[in-house]
Amino acid sequence: MNTAAPSLKLPPVASTANPLLEAQLRHALDNKTKPLGSLGRLEPLAMQLGLIQESTHIELRQPQIAVFAADHGLTDEGVSAYPQAVTLQMVINMARGGAAVNVLARQHGFGLTVVDAGVAAQLPPEAAGDGSEVNLLLRKIGFGTRNMARGPAMTGAQTLAAINAGFDVVQHLGGNVVAFGEMGIGNTSSAALLLSRLCAVQLDDAVGRGAGLNDAQLDHKLRVLFEVSRRHRAAQAPLAVLTAMGGFEIAMMVGAMLQAASERRVILVDGFIAGAAALVARSLRPAATDYMVFTHRSAEVGHRLMLIHLQAQPLLDLEMRLGEGSGAMVAWPLVQSAALLLNEMASFETAGVSHATPSPDHGDMDTMV
């Protein structure tokens, strides 16, 4: 457990804005053998990848996924349908290869790292396995956060320690693509509170059913979170909000996202919880979102508003709400497709295909002639 009082030095994050390269990418896409814009949102995705990599040719190497796990003291207030012990159980399940994220990471060839950011128990030695499939990292800041209904979830020192640990996790990952997921019973409460405070969203618009609350349980959760918000009304600056209402896994993801952006990696953001980390990362380094691909819209009610505030268009909407990075994994083939289309699709000139000609009645034709 890290008990030192750390400082925080944020890595520099450069904007990907590059008008000359953007024009080159647009020209390349517009001259592929297709009607203008006919690949829809794959085209701006390809442009984003090119701007991240500062190239008109995309290379996606050794994709990684990091899943950050931690517990939340607020579960003492009955805000989740599942007991806190499930976090530890699921981390062990991931370490043994049995979770959804394991299946999807294997399918798509991602290296999987599971990070104990603050699980409320020691992982048993056998959880580590042989390390052949899952890299299990112990970066525990504490045994779960404190109950934020009674006081701040974290100390300021713990928040900084978690962010710094996130920097370190990414620095030791290979490749140039990193996806982020999480595991933590009760963390939809933290994400909803962060959304509400950082984006001035009404709390009852931000709070959802999490892992499956019924109506009565949802009403109780909302009452608890209103009281938490009132108790911590003085917390307004991003790091103060994160300290009061966040979780170790969210804070560590913030650092990991900032480090990935500083290294110009493609960042695949999963759902509601990872999106909350993205909100904080953006508040600290606004250009960080240039590197983020928002992979899906979660069924968690607040995620739609979160994406609006992030000015993000998700690639998919499959009504998923599992977490673990599962949505990022499912969306990965779209990222690959965008890159391959830019890299390999022929131009009109190289293929000997005629350009579309304007129609006197209908403007530009939407089919090739």
What does it look like?
With 369 residues, the protein is α/β, with parallel strands linked by helices. The chain has one domain: Nicotinate-nucleotide-dimethylbenzimidazole phosphoribosyltransferase (CobT), large domain (Rossmann fold), CATH 3.40.50.10210. It is 43% helix and 10% strand. The chain contains 14 helices and eight strands. The strands form two sheets. The protein has a six-stranded parallel β-sheet with strand order 3-2-1-4-5-6, sandwiched between helices. Strands 7-8 form a two-stranded antiparallel sheet. Strand 7 (358-359) and strand 8 (363-364) form a beta hairpin. The longest helix has 19 residues, at 326-344. The termini are far apart. Mean pLDDT is 94; it is low at 362-369.
